[in-house]
Amino acid sequence: MQRQLRFGVLGCAQIATGTMMPAIAESKSGVLEAVASRDLSRSSRIARELGIRKAYGSYEELLMDPEVDAVYIPLPNHLHREWVIRAAEAGKHVLCEKPIGLSAREAAEMTAACRKAGVHLAEAFMYRHHPRYPVLKAILQSGEIGSLRAIRGSFTYNNALDNANVRFRSAWGGGSLYDIGCYPLSAARMLIGTEPEAATVHALFSPEHDNVDMLASGLVEFPGGLSLIFECGMWAYERQLLEIIGTEGRIEIPMPFNARTDDADFYIYAGGGERRVNAPGANPFTCQVEDFASAVFGQTPPLFEPEDAVRNMKLLEACLASAAGRRRVTLDSVD
């Protein structure tokens, strides 16, 4: 019989109830053991709807449950550090929503706490677990589009009228860079395979939305003259695209961050022609659960060590500092 990782979920955010909890239930390696909310009636209702055995009225109670092996944390960004560390101290493995924290220092503290406790920590960038990406990496390594020169990434949507949204609270880690800019930033790091050197970012900080960055665009410099040009926004027409540019061609990836089963294909333009790559489809949230459980059980190495989250937070910090100061920021200047 296949081993199953018993998950507890801290909070009832939409990403949890609408996406991750169904993905855990759908997976072969995970099972929903418990859900917690500061409102017991809410967690009880979610437990009934999703067939979860236990509901708690506090996160502390869930962490005390000996039948919970791992926790998924979908809380607002400013609460990640506290509850990752408390979960680690309770001996629970941790899958934490992106971005993992508010700073590289917070991410490093979380990583150290989980290392000390001997538990696995992973940042929930589900798109990296989609089976299209190994196919894409193999094509890049084959040289079909020549030597890599640049990456362009876009991720925008418009929910500016949702005034109660936690993404519009500055002290809670709101803003488009934290929410969706982290996707093209992490994707460029993953595909280029090296760490960036500097970032220059321009942003629209909106007084109507607690002065968070509602739109940001920027240039990220990588060694060897490679670059990422990106845009992200919560107050712009919905758009997702990743373009990889080489000396002999380019790859265009529609829906690079939210693709599932029927929209995983991408396109190669090289040698004067176009080729559609029929990439395998899957629910990346379910794949993320399977990969997380496999790492916890020691069956496969983690796709990304928690130190990767620290490095991505360092880049995010540089981007935010650049936008706030309207200046170029080097990564080695970020603590």
Automatic annotation (TrEMBL):
Keywords: Oxidoreductase. Gene3D superfamilies: Dihydrodipicolinate Reductase, domain 2 (3.30.360.10), NAD(P)-binding Rossmann-like Domain (3.40.50.720). Residues 5-122 form the Gfo/Idh/MocA-like oxidoreductase N-terminal domain. The keyword Oxidoreductase applies. GO terms for molecular function: nucleotide binding; oxidoreductase activity. The keyword Lipoprotein does not apply. InterPro entries: Gfo/Idh/MocA-like_OxRdtase_N (IPR000683), Gfo/Idh/MocA_domain (IPR050984), GFO_IDH_MocA-like_dom (IPR055170), NAD(P)-bd_dom_sf (IPR036291). It holds the Pfam family GFO_IDH_MocA. Residues 136-252 form the GFO/IDH/MocA-like oxidoreductase domain. Belongs to the Gfo/Idh/MocA family. This is Oxidoreductase domain-containing protein.
